[in-house]
Design goal:
It is a single chain. It contains 9 helices and 14 strands. The chain is α/β, with parallel strands linked by helices and 309 residues long. The protein folds into 2 domains: 176 residues, Nucleoside Triphosphate Pyrophosphohydrolase, CATH 3.90.79.10; 126 residues, Rossmann fold (3-Layer(aba) Sandwich). Strands 1, 2, 3, 4, 5, 6, 7, 8 and 9 form a 9-stranded mixed β-sheet that branches. The protein has a 5-stranded parallel β-sheet with strand order 11-10-12-13-14, with helices on both faces. Helix 5 packs parallel to helix 9. The longest helix is centred in the C-terminal third of the chain and has 23 residues. Pfam families: NUDIX (PF00293). Keywords: Hydrolase, Metal-binding. GO terms for molecular function: hydrolase activity; metal ion binding. It comes from Symbiodinium microadriaticum.
Length: 309
């Protein structure tokens, strides 16, 4: 059967969406954060196929698996979890494809080389965590050209982002497609007073993230900030314990970090070559700002050199 003619919906027709507490959603700038993957495999003829799922409430419209980020969850973990729940696929999470925005959502998408598909050969899939009153949906392996006309919303853009990745880098979790096509560096800046934040903005764009002053739980705040790291070329962090933690998880993702603090930096953190840490103890705000700006400039110059190599 021609997949483009596959318009029959799942048993029971379109589902009715269940109520979900909006207060539990992780949002930034009014958009709900989501994560998902482009599941793919090689065929016997060495061509690429992608795994699509049919929308439970939109029969005939297909997309890639993705779902809402839970409070306290990291987006890569969310992408793998949602892929398994929505289509039964698991495998190697590869490169970060970028963020894709709609009016209501921001989706963080990754490639996934599928190594196992539950109940393989059966097109129907039971999604136990479906947001609708039915849990049955269809899934289908398709060649790229057959997949294109079926994709809804931002699906075509996600597919093109996947196809733009060199074949040898699709399974490379350290490769970020977003950064290769960005004209301006993007920075995660946290804890910095307005003067330092404005100074950082002279070197690139500042990612929008919530702060502890926003009406978020600690788990929601973590999820939103950790998500922003996937978009960042570098992080500038000012403060104590919370910023030490952020420096650690930033470095884990191989993101260069400038840590400016008035406290002693723990030995292992100060020994990490990915983290440039400086203890500034000036009692004068003017002196502190001048020295911090100098450190920021030195850090940004080194970063710019590294990014152009």
């Amino acid at each position: 059967m021609n997949p483009c003619e596959a318009s029959d919906g799942p048993p029971g027709g379109p589902g009715v969406k269940k109520a979900r507490l909006e207060s539990s959603a992780v949002k930034v700038a009014g958009r709900k954060l989501r994560a998902g993957t482009v599941p793919w495999r090689w065929t016997a003829g060495s061509s690429v196929q992608v795994l699509l799922i049919e929308g439970i409430n939109t029969p005939g419209k297909w997309t890639f698996p993705a779902g809402s980020l839970d409070p306290g969850e990291e987006v890569a973990s969310c992408a793998a979890r949602e892929t398994q729940e929505e289509c039964g696929a698991s495998g190697t999470l590869g490169c970060f494809l970028g963020t894709f925005d709609t009016e209501k959502n921001r989706s963080y998408m990754f490639s996934m080389y599928v190594q196992h598909l539950e109940d393989d050969g059966n097109e129907a899939w039971h999604d136990p965590h479906s947001a609708y009153d039915t849990s049955l949906r269809r899934r289908r392996w398709l060649d790229v050209e057959a997949a294109r006309p079926l994709l809804k919303k931002d699906g075509p853009q996600v597919l093109e982002a996947f196809l733009s990745i060199p074949e040898g880098r699709r399974q490379d979790a350290r490769y970020r497609a977003l950064h290769k096509h960005s004209e301006q560096s993007r920075f995660l800046v946290m804890g910095a007073p307005g003067t330092l934040r404005d100074h950082c903005a002279q070197w690139g764009s500042i990612l929008e993230v919530p702060s502890s002053l926003d009406s978020l739980t600690e788990s929601q705040l973590f999820a939103a900030v950790a998500a922003a790291l996937w978009e960042a070329d570098a992080a500038v962090l000012c403060g104590g314990a919370d910023m030490f933690y952020m420096a650690g998880i930033s470095a884990r993702q191989d993101i260069p970090v400038l840590l400016i603090t008035g406290e002693n930096v723990p030995g292992l953190l100060s020994g990490d070559s990915r983290i440039a840490s400086f203890v500034l103890e000036s009692e004068s705000e003017t002196t502190f700002a001048a020295e911090a700006c100098r450190r920021i400039d030195d850090f940004m110059k080194q970063l710019r050199t590294a990014l152009t190599v």
